[in-house]
Every structure is written in C-alpha cells, then in structure tokens.
Specification:
Blueprint: H1 3-9, H2 24-34, E1 46-51, H3 54-60, E2 84-91, H4 92-95, H5 103-119, E3 123-127, H6 132-138, E4 145-154, E5 160-164, E6 173-174, E7 180-184, H7 187-190
Parallel strand pairs: 5-7
Antiparallel strand pairs: 1-2, 2-4, 3-4, 6-7
Helix pairs in contact: 2-5
Bound molecules: flavin mononucleotide.
Flavin mononucleotide (FMN) binds near residues 14, 126, 127, 129 and 182.
Length: about 190
C-alpha cells in the first residue's frame, strides 16, 4: 500500500465489528510507534492508558461523545462499539502545569497511532469530546495525569467515502444506507501559492 493510500484508508470510524478483539500487545505496538514521534524540546510528556477489556471499555464508552454533526444517529450503534481505547494523558510531573504547550505533540502522537493502526487494519476515531475530570475519576488516574485525547479503536464496519467540499460545506453527513461522507477541501483551495 502506498503511504497516500494509507492516509486515505485512515478515516474516522464510528462503527465497529465487536467480534474482532484488539489485544494488549497490538495496543502496545501502536504506542511503541507514537513514542518515536517528534516531540517539542524532546520532553515527551505523554502517557497512554490502554484498554482492550470489555468491562473497562464499558466504563470509557459512555464518557465519550461521538459525531456531534449527526445528533440523531447516536453513534456508535449498540453492538458496534470500539473494542479498545487508548487514553492519551499529559503527565504534569514531566511537562509542568501548561498542557496547552504540548497539544501539537498530542496531535502528532495520535495521528502516528491512527496511521499505525490503519496499516494493521485497525480503525478508529479520535475523541476530544469528553470530560477529563470524569475520565480521571472513572479510571482512577493519579492526579498528575491529565487525559487530553481518547482514541477509540476496533475493526471498522462502516462504509466511508471522501468527497470534495462544495460551497464551503465541511460537515460530514450520511445517506439512507448509512454510508458516511467526509468532505475534504481540494488541493487547489488549500495551497497558498
Ligand atoms: C483532535 C480531534 C478530535 C476529535 N474529536 C472527535 C469527537 O469527540 N467525536 C467524534 O465523533 N469525532 C471526533 N473527531 C473526528 C473528526 O470528526 C473527523 O476527523 C472529521 O469528521 C473528518 O473525518 P476523517 O477523520 O475521516 O477525515 C476528532 C478529530 C480530531 C482530529
């Protein structure tokens, strides 16, 4: 697969085949890629909480909010939930009291994980919509770890298509067959010069 095909394959999935389990070892391999990513000042303040356990997944899932643009869909549907989660946390004992300074690191590490996952036929969705306080409490995280992004993972069972943005409309949408359309701006629109 070309690198560009991998990037195209790496869509945000909000439905999964729950019969396909993700192992702890698979999750560790993903984080093993993220830990090699570039890091601001090479400080590396991110830590990763892994779950491939259905009981813990059941604690994390209700704390995550999905597809704000499709409020009537209630995604992911019951029986199609992620089979693993990676909660990316900012470690204050390493990075200090200013997590905002390291949010670019979070994006880089998250995308590294998602691309590594897609390469192994694991799909997922980055979830920024959650209460850090509630996640900290639910997972009994120590106070120096601040959850900054959740990665939901599993074997995607959705049909997702990239379409070109028309008239500035960037909202993703679904048709009656539940095919998910994700509009992307054209290269010409994004190039400055
Ligand atoms: C930082 C970040 C946070 C996101 N948070 C959420 C979220 O809370 N819930 C959700 O359903 N999708 C979330 N997404 C997924 C975006 O909605 C998705 O990337 C966008 O619709 C484009 O689709 P694509 O990833 O297939 O290109 C997030 C994506 C990013 C990069």
């Amino acid at each position: 697969m070309s690198f560009k095909d991998l990037v195209i394959k790496n869509r945000s999935y909000r439905g999964f085949d729950e019969t396909v389990k993700i192992t702890r070892q698979q999750l560790e391999e993903l984080v093993d890629c993220a830990r090699l990513a570039p890091a601001a000042q090479n400080i590396q303040p991110l830590k990763y909480y892994l779950s491939c356990d259905s009981e813990i997944n059941g604690i994390i899932q209700p704390l995550t909010r999905w597809a704000g643009a499709l409020p009537d869909h209630n995604l992911p549907y019951e029986g199609h939930r992620p089979t693993a989660f990676i909660v990316i946390c900012f470690d204050k004992t390493i990075g200090g009291e200013e997590p905002a300074k390291f949010m670019k690191d979070v994006g880089i590490c998250a995308q590294t994980i998602m691309l590594a996952a897609a390469y192994q036929d694991i799909n997922g969705c980055m979830i920024g919509a959650f209460s850090a306080e509630k996640v900290t409490q639910a997972l009994s995280l120590p106070s120096h770890l601040h959850p900054v992004l959740i990665l939901a993972l599993g074997k995607g069972d959705e049909d997702i298509k990239i379409v070109e943005v028309q008239n500035g409309a960037t909202k993703y949408y679904r048709d009656q067959n539940d095919t998910h359309y994700v509009p992307k701006r054209s290269l010409a629109e994004e190039l400055i010069n």
